[in-house]
Amino acid sequence: MSDLKVLSVASEIFPLVKTGGLADVVGALPGALAREGVEVRTLVPAYPAVLAKLAGAATARDYDTLFGAPARVIAGRAAGLDLFAIDAPHLFGRPGNPYLGPDGLDWPDNARRFAALGRVAADIGRGAIDGYRPEVVHAHDWQAALAPAYLHYADGPRPGTAVTVHNMAFQGHFPVSIFGELGLPARALAIDGVEYFGGVGYLKAGLQLSDRITTVSPTYAREIMTPEFGNALDGLLRARARVVQGIVNGIDDAVWDPATDPVVAQNYSAVRIDMRVRNKTALQTQMGLAPGVERPLFAVISRLSDQKGLDLLLAALPGLIAKGGQLALLGSGDRSLEAGFAAAAAGRPNSVGCVFAYDEKLAHLFQAGADFVVVPSRFEPCGLTQLCALRYGAVPIVARVGGLADTVINANEAATAAGVATGVQFCPRSVDALSYALDRALEINADPAMTRRLRLNGMRADVSWRGPAQHYATLYRAIARPAE
Length: 484
Ligand code: ADP
Prior knowledge:
Blueprint: E1 4-9, H1 21-34, E2 38-45, H2 48-53, E3 58-66, E4 69-78, E5 81-87, H3 89-92, H4 110-125, E6 136-140, H5 141-144, H6 146-153, E7 160-165, E8 173-174, H7 179-182, E9 195-196, E10 199-201, H8 202-209, E11 212-215, H9 218-223, H10 227-230, H11 234-239, E12 244-246, H12 277-286, E13 297-304, H13 310-322, E14 326-333, H14 335-347, E15 352-355, H15 360-369, E16 372-375, H16 385-392, E17 395-399, H17 402-407, H18 413-418, E18 424-426, H19 431-445, H20 448-460, H21 466-479
Parallel strand pairs: 1-2, 1-6, 2-5, 6-7, 7-11, 11-12, 13-14, 13-16, 14-15, 16-17, 17-18
Antiparallel strand pairs: 3-4, 4-5, 8-10, 9-10
The structure holds adenosine-5'-diphosphate.
């Protein structure tokens, strides 16, 4: 049986261009799916960082004009990934962040840039590249979500389509004036088409017109059908509930492997878990915290944004410190949160240490050295930090929301008695509830046998891409339309 062909479409892919978890997922799926008999090629914009890795790539298709100027699709391999890239200098020939200009604002032509991504994806889906015809087109997030819309309105055979929502907060909602440029038929500007609150909604269009919708955890799949989490698309999702599915993300368990990790102070595994403590000492030293293996060390590795709920932790922090806890924070983003944690560190340097940066390497030492990793998100489609924590034997303390609810087993009476707990969940998302959870963590910390049990359970949980890849493969097979 030949492999099923899937065209994955996204605006970022690790390790070529990344602003968040989306890139990790898009970069990891091809490898994981290859083991399931699925051949994934990924279509991305050829930003300078992508072009640099595709030197010498062949032209697979020319466009006389693509949203205002000539362009071409190139095909090549980089970082172990099979790629198509849209070489359109007028749209993507800009270094730095893929979405924002040097002023930190969205590029004013983002509607055009990402319509081009959807348009080219649909063309490839319909056989625009000689010798390549996918049976499924899988669009990630709003930037790719016009692909199913273009396919829906095109004549002739088309592949099956799926859209994955990585974060409902970003939707690609543009003024109606863009519609004339999209090249869609007039009837597409309708409530059951791409129209959205009087404008054009890219994610809305994808959710409306794709065969299947997935998001990155079962709990988030249910949550986004409610007004609280649906960002105004909950009604549409409820109407399409039968085709909505949650599939949790995985992590690369070769990159995240405490037994071989080259950047931690001490390698360890479940059978040598006692050696883990050397990483704690190294982390305390590096962060300027008071040494002491008995002091419970809490860590945060996160974007500092409202979503992540770190204002709750800032409010709960004095109580935690008063009870002997320490906090190491690695994160960047919101200036007022940075200022708040910086002030906490200045006031109690023995107990609070912060690095306001994005630092992949340091993140590994944080996971290897922390006793607890705190993820107090207000909403969390999946979350990767807690998966890394499980793998590294740091006990996650998480808000019971989205993917955090699906991946951490709360150490309540029943789970503890059954010996299956892996962390602590709290609910509602409030300072009081978080404070109780931190108290629970201190109780656990005071019980070495229980702490060990939780760490081992976490380390033995399967947080790899194997399970998720099987779910995606099953989904693709259900919607695949063979090339005619
Ligand atoms: P999001 O995509 O919303 O930022 P996720 O938890 O899905 O959140 O993925 C973020 C990933 O980036 C996690 O693996 C997290 O550990 C990592 N990360 C976040 N902030 C930093 C940082 N400052 N330094 C290093 N890694 C970070």
